[in-house]
Amino acid sequence: MTDLSRLPCALIQPLLTHVVRRIAARHPSLFARLGPHQSTDFLIDPIELPFALHLRPDPEALIFRAVPRDAAPHPGALIRGKFMLLLELMDAEEDGDAAFFSRDLEVSGDTEAVVRLRNALDDVDGSIAEETADMFGAPGRVILARLRRNYPTQENGAVAP
Amino acid sequence: MAVTEMTKLTLGPIAYHWSAEKRRDFYARIADETPVDEVYLGEVICSKRAPFHEADLPDTIARLERAGKTVILSSLAEVMLKRERKATADLAAMDAPEIEINNAAGLYVRGDRPHRIGPFMNAYNEATIAWMARQGASHICLPTELPAEAIAVATKAARDLGLGVEVQVFGRASLAVSARCYHARAHGRTKDNCQFVCEDDADGMPLCTTDERPILRVNGIQTQSQSYVDLLPEMPKLASVGVTHLRLMPQAVDMVAVARTFRDALDCTSNITDAEQALHDICGDVAFSNGFYYGQAGYRRIAMAASG
Amino acid sequence: MSLAELICPAGTPAALRTAVDAGADAVYCGFQDATNARNFPGLNFTPDELAEAVIYAHAKGTKVLLALNTYPPAGKVDLWRQAADTGARLGIDAFIVADMGVADYIAQTHPQVRLHLSVQAAASSPEAIRYYCENFGVKRVVLPRILTIPEIKQVRKEIPCEIETFIFGNHGLMVEGRCSLTNYLTGQSTNMDGVCSPASDVEYKRDADGTMSSQLAGFTIDCFGPDEKAGYPTICKGRYTAPHRSDAYYAFEEPVSLNLSRLLPELIDAGVHAFKIEGRQRSKSYVRGVVSAFRRAVDDIRAGRSADMADLVALTEGQKQTQGAFETKKWR
């Protein structure tokens, strides 16, 4: 398993805050597509990680934090799937509808919020994951490369880590 | 109420595959006993059904006209096959009676000769209505899903151009048409080999959700609302914005009684509350809806806002 | 032989650039309002975004088609007229229209811009198509997905304009522009508001055993077992019971996508001028995959090679594909 899954929430929190602020600053048009759902609480739940991610994409008070599942807020919208799938969806490497049809992606709560977030992220050119990795220089890129290598792709058949 | 006394009641074309005998009996009663001013005839939904009742049309027209009704022939909503194109062209070639067109193919062959615009023609707005009026339309039936504010604007525009304006006030709403026959599909058949199984469902075939909630009705290639549209309480409002014709769609209930109830309410010989109750008694346990009129989900029943 | 143009969906500026880069001959898109039939949350273009998109596409030789293919309700016609004026000012290459009032306005006000007849106009006969050609100068018709290839060939002989057909994507069952199913359950209209099963009314519920049900405005549309592939929560792809069908069945159509990749040569032979890929609501990933696959296929066919199509089934609804009415009239 990867280093990331063993990182306690407290340790990665500063990283997440840093990442989301930088992404938000670089892609302001993202917020326009979110419309009224800038204040919605999204819970992004990578099923094999020991924590979930709480996102509130409010440009005035951005929240992006790792939360233990049992301490997660009641979300307006829930997005659940394998970590790598979620990463690929964020980067528009995967098609969200296709992942939904195949049942690899589960959504519940406010469906419009999920659709808006998906469309907002999809309008971002390039890879958010790589942008994130770049923020941390060479070590960041190494971690991302290792993540991608360690995770079986859809075609290879998903194996629980 | 002078304004409503002018308002005409019409009977829309039968959407279902009723047998020739059933239709003959039905129109005999419409001619003799029913207070509607105008009657639309003809097959609108499925071209395969037309041969079953076409032969009776001249007699039915004569009978209704003798009874003082204006008769209008309605054209097919879906025109794709050779027989559908021919049926549309034949109808468009007629000088009398009046015709109501439900497909642009009919508009093309009719040219600028006078005609009515049917509910499938999508006359949603004043620009489209003005265009249609310039091409010879004399009368417009508005789409069933149009809300009250749009009805008012469209009606004013149409009336200013001298057109009659019609709104459906009773019966299941047409929600969709398709090239595929869902009656045939439900019985494991194709449209070409349907064996006219739709004749078994005089008021459409009910569909329910998996948690047993009635939702839709299937009528061949058409999908209808489960509920009956009922704008009886809204009739004074419709008349006051200038709607000239109110359409009752034939359902498998006592349509003579339905028409009388609407007529009495229009003439103010019964009050709206009593008329509504009478309508419920006639229709049994069918749900009524008016959501489209109020710009809400079509299946909903909205209590009318108290107003003068 | 026709040119077999590839007409590709663009729900966002990024998707538009993706489609252009993947080899689209033309992209189609819409504004962020009721003037087009994919008025979905977070989707579509502001006028500024469209201006940039037109510049990007034109620089690479790709045309931009603007969908104004809904029906303005009375009293709101100005929104459609303003959208047409904006599109014309930004230099789009054609309008895709359905409403006669909108078509008439554009024909009068912007006669220099091409008019395409949207599938939402449901023109399925030579007479209906000629009506729009002769009255509004329509140059191309997008045919409803209900005709067989021999029927398309016959229509082609009887009309004075180009034909565009769908070749991939969501497989609409109902006659487009004549469907009020969504409005019946949600109060939002496909024709007037440009929505179909709006996300704001969709809810997915998951049971402990992994069963997922999709609901629209509180009505159960479908229920998928833990291992069953899912589809869109649209009324026409739902499962229902009927008096003689106590086991819920797909009363209209199963979750399935149209894929005509194997029929491309026959469609070209029938005189189809342009191939349309559905999916403005889909992601860049979908656009990239589908557009580049069909780009290669069309290029192969043009060069006289047999087309080697990539497998696109993973991107299809219900992970199932059909050739629908194009293959056989038994589909009806």
Automatic annotation (TrEMBL), chain A:
Domain of life according to the entry: Bacteria
SCP2 domain location: 53-122
InterPro entries named among the record's database cross-references: SCP2_sterol-bd_dom (IPR003033), SCP2_sterol-bd_dom_sf (IPR036527)
Record's protein name: SCP-2 sterol transfer family protein
Source species: Roseovarius lutimaris
Source species taxonomy: Bacteria, Pseudomonadati, Pseudomonadota, Alphaproteobacteria, Rhodobacterales
UniProtKB/TrEMBL annotation, chain B:
Pathway connected to this protein: Cofactor biosynthesis; ubiquinone biosynthesis
Statement: the UniProt record of this protein carries the keyword Hydrolase: yes
UniProt keyword annotations, A-Z: 4Fe-4S, Hydrolase, Iron, Iron-sulfur, Metal-binding, Protease, Ubiquinone biosynthesis
InterPro entries: Peptidase_U32, RNA/ubiquinone_mod_enzymes, UbiV
GO molecular function: 4 iron, 4 sulfur cluster binding; metal ion binding; peptidase activity
UniProt superkingdom: Bacteria
Any Pfam family: Peptidase_U32
Family from the record: Belongs to the peptidase U32 family. UbiV subfamily.
Quaternary data: Forms a heterodimer with UbiU.
HAMAP family to which the protein is assigned, alphabetical: UbiV
Full protein name: Ubiquinone biosynthesis protein UbiV
Gene: ubiV
Automatic annotation (TrEMBL), chain C:
Gene source species: Roseovarius lutimaris
The name this protein goes by in its record: Ubiquinone biosynthesis protein UbiU
Gene Ontology terms describing biological process: proteolysis; ubiquinone biosynthetic process
Family: Belongs to the peptidase U32 family. UbiU subfamily.
Subunit structure and binding partners: Forms a heterodimer with UbiV.
One GO molecular-function entry: peptidase activity
Summary of the function given for this chain in its UniProt record: Required for O(2)-independent ubiquinone (coenzyme Q) biosynthesis. Together with UbiV, is essential for the C6-hydroxylation reaction in the oxygen-independent ubiquinone biosynthesis pathway.
Pathway info: Cofactor biosynthesis; ubiquinone biosynthesis
HAMAP family assigned: UbiU
One Pfam assignment: Peptidase_U32
Alphabetically ordered keywords of this record: Hydrolase, Protease, Ubiquinone biosynthesis
